[in-house]
Amino acid sequence: MKANRLSKLSLAIGLSVATTSALASPQAFMSARSFAMGGTGVAVAHPSAAPSANPAMMAAEQHDWADDFGLMLPSVNARAADEEEVVDQVDDIQDVIDQFNELDRNSNPEEARRLAGDLRERLNKFDRDTMRANAGLGLAFAIPTNSVSVGFMTNASLTATVRGEFDEDDNDFLATLETASVNDLVNADLDRDLESRGRILASAAAEAGISIASSFEMQSGHVFQIGVTPKYVELRTFQYTETVSDFEDDEFDADDYQTDKSGFNLDIGAAYAFGADNQWNAGVVVKNLIPMELDSAQSHPTEEKYTLELNPMVTAGIAHKSDYHVVTAELDLTKKEAFGYEDDTQWLALGAEFDAWRYAQLRAGVRHNLASNDDNDGIEEDTQFTAGLGLNIIGVRVDIGALYSSADVGAALELGTSF
Q1: Pairing of strands 148-165, 383-393
Q2: Fewer CB within 10 Å of terminal CB in the chain, N or C?
Q3: Which of 76-115 are b and which e, b meaning 16 or more Cβ less than 10 Å from the residue's Cβ?
């Protein structure tokens, strides 16, 4: 097979996991508004985002233009970290392999030796280089009322990593070719002899549920909300390892390299509005009350088996709001464990929104990962900065968001309506 084999492999795995798992991931889904506000939402979610962020917020006091109905159709987000340009490295490595194999080594042995040295250097640099991609998709609606608020959500996201693994035997083999005789160069077949590998590891989860929430006014005039989201969850993992030269896309069957598990789960949330005008709001949510685990497949005897854990996650937030602004702070009280080449995460986030008479909203946020990752192999999840804009035009809502960090870039887009 010619150039771009691993690039095709990466694409095939990405598409396979996306289609079989509905673009799913154990990372919590967030709306485009939340994306632009540093991932916050527990104390500030609008009704259509509340079933995913904190179901209690469906029953919370909202703007009068958003307290009867909310629709998210759809919300998408994506981010990627590829500091080492892993996909480009794969393309370049395959180009060199093909140049060597197609070269007339009898008449041009010096060029063959040069290509062997070039390939050895590239494979050494490729070792342990990693790229990560995250994507998410969500649909939801909510009907807030003065008694019982009801909503529906289905959302999903994907986390996938691609990593290079250089085999030490390849280093010795290619070093020998750099000074090999013409006969040895002619007999060399890089498609047959190379053992360096590319590994793709992905974790996934999709969920769909119905949310119910209600509010209770206290004697003090403050308001307490509580909500629950019973839901169906499907987890998937995907692991594929293959040498840089053996992959054939017409022989690839995604089913051989994935595992899956499904079951029912539950989110529960609460919120409390207080202050002279109930301008303060505190919220807490516990997601995935029922722990779930899933082991990855092993496509190669030397592969390590990874365990995907979906454990209860507790997040608390507080917000101050008015007709023209929202400022919020949020903290994960539990840590999300890493899967494979990911980092543990435990976010402390700040977010703000400034509203121009309903028609436009300017948003910004920042979040910092408090989890220690000294023992993990993932691309760094550290401090991320976000920004975004919301527009309401003739009843149609458009939200966009952007994310930047030293490792990641990302974007979000959402269409919807509320009244």
Answers
A1: unpaired
A2: C
A3: bbbbbbbebebbebbebbbebbbbbbeeebeeebeebbeb
Say how far apart CA 261 and CA 369 lie, in whole Å.
29
Quote the CA–CA distance of 417 and 419 in Å, as a whole number: 7
Q: Is the pLDDT of residue 15 over 70?
A: no
Spatial separation of the C-alpha atoms in residues 21 and 38, rounded to whole Å: 26
The band of 8, judged by pLDDT with boundaries at 50, 70 and 90, is very low
Round to whole Å and give the CA distance between 292 and 340: 17
Q: How many residues does this entry show for the chain?
A: 419
Handedness of CA 296, 298, 301, 303 (dihedral sign): negative
Distance CA 85, CA 164 (A): 11
Both structure tokens of 414: 């959402």
pTM of full prediction above 0.70: yes
Residues in Cβ contact with 325 at an 8 Å cutoff, skipping those fewer than 6 apart: 352, 353, 354, 355
The residues, ordered by sequence, that sit 6+ positions from 108 with a Cβ below 8 Å of its Cβ are none
- pLDDT digits 0-9 by tens, 300-333: 666 788 889 999 999 999 999 998 999 999 999 9
Q: What is the mean pLDDT of the chain?
A: 87
In the chain, domain spans: 5-418
- Residue 182: predicted pLDDT: 93
In single-letter form, the type of residue at position 163 comes to R
What pLDDT is stored for residue 289 in this prediction?
Answer: 96
CATH of 5-418, one of 3.40.50, 1.10.3470, 2.40.160, 2.40.430: 2.40.160
User: 51 φ, ψ to 5°?
Assistant: -55, -30
Closest-CA residue to 325 (of 44, 65, 32): 44
Contact 25, 159 (CB under 8 A): yes
Which of 165, 149, 170 minimizes the C-alpha distance to 229? 149
Three-state SS at 172:
helix
Give bridge partners of residue 329 from the DSSP assignment: 318, 350
**pLDDT tens, residue by residue, 181-235:** 999 999 998 888 888 888 888 898 899 999 999 999 988 889 999 999 999 999 9
